Every structure is written in C-alpha cells, then in structure tokens.
Amino acid sequence: MVRTQIQLTESQVRRLRDMARDAGISMSEAVRRCIEKALGEGSPGRGVLYARAAGLAGSVEDPAGATDVASDHDRYLEETGE
Predict the structure, then answer these.
(1) Residues 6+ apart with CB under 8 A from 26
(2) CB-based contacts of 45, cutoff 8 Å, min separation 6
(3) CB 3.0–4.6 Å: which of 17, 29, 47, 60 could bond 25 by disulfide?
(4) Which residues contact 20 (CB under 8 A, 6 or more apart)?
(5) Lowest-confidence pick of 4-8, 19-23, 64-68
(6) What is the CATH number of domain 1-58?
C-alpha cells in the first residue's frame, strides 16, 4: 500500500467516521472502499459497454419506417453523401 495524505471537511470526516464505525472497519478502509466504488463506477469495462450496445441494437425504429437498414446500409450511406 501507498501512504498518502488528504484533506477532508469536518462534515466528510464525521460521515466517514460514522460509516466506518457502522461497518466495523477502520477509516482508512472506509476511504479505500469509497475510492474503489467511485473508480469502479466511473469507467465501465469493455464487456459492460458491449452489453449496453447489444441491448440498444434494434431497439429504435426509423421514423421513416425503413426496416432494411441493416442489409442496405451502404445504399443509405451513399444517399447521405457520407
């Protein structure tokens, strides 16, 4: 482990102390858990991102009613000039 020093507000210290006491852990462990939770939620892994994308695929209808976009995507791109 790496020893570090941080500054917290009085309110943060009180809340952290209460959280640590309720969980039966040290304040250092409470800080580590908070940091791990924040870092874990901040950057989902590749698998999570792929699962989200797969869940979205096919979930939105074309307002113009096109149902052949997957098979005719090249034609649609050509029509847009891209």
Answers:
(1) 20
(2) none
(3) 29
(4) 26, 27, 29, 30
(5) 64-68
(6) 1.10.1220
Q: Where are the beta strands (DSSP E) in the chain?
A: none
Show Cβ contacts of residue 30 under 8 Å, excluding neighbours closer than 6 positions: 16, 19, 20, 23
Rg (CA), the chain: 24
Domain boundaries, the chain: 1-58
3-class SS at 51?
Answer: helix
**What residue has token string 């020893």?**
3
User: Does the pTM of the predicted model rise above 0.85?
Assistant: no
If you count DSSP H runs as helices and E runs as strands, how many of each does the chain have, helices first? 4, 0
